[in-house]
Amino acid sequence: ELPYPGRRRPSGPGADTDFISSDLARMIEATRQAVADVRTLISWARAQGCPSIGLWGVSLGGWLAGLTPCADERVARLVLMEPAARMDRVLTELEFAAPVRHALEQTPLDLGRLNLARLQPRLSPDNILIVAGRHDLFTSLDTVQELRGHWGQPELRVFDHGHISLLLVRPVITCILDWIVAKTASRAAHPAGVADGSVVRGIQ
Hints:
The chain is an alpha/beta fold.
């Protein structure tokens, strides 16, 4: 469990109980802890003999999954499903982030520094898949396309769905699983990391 959900949700009087909150310092701290947690899990998996690590993140989890390989070269494959690529827009445009906007009135912060496009992942674009919904009003398609441009044009697959419905249709999940299987097979056939170019092109 990442910071705040489930058993890690604070319960004391006056405690912020959400990842996105009016306590900006705590929010940044939670982000750092979340990435540290994922990197610790990677270390554990490697210690158990796992030869290859991939991350699959959705929405806010897509943002955190995108941050991780920018700090850790051990991520071999990355799937970002409707990622919150432009956190500056998420925090300034969406209703649930109103506490952040109120806090920014007292403590200005360059939210652009939270955007994935400000960073570069330590893996090839060939090993990144981005999945987006054409009608997504939460993480809009233009922000995903912008990220793709900054990250070397990884494969992008766009479906006629919104932020929630994208998670509920079998063809989307099947598409992602097929991509993972193809990448795993390619890695097994080319252990030195040379791709065979057989992965299906993106659907746009």
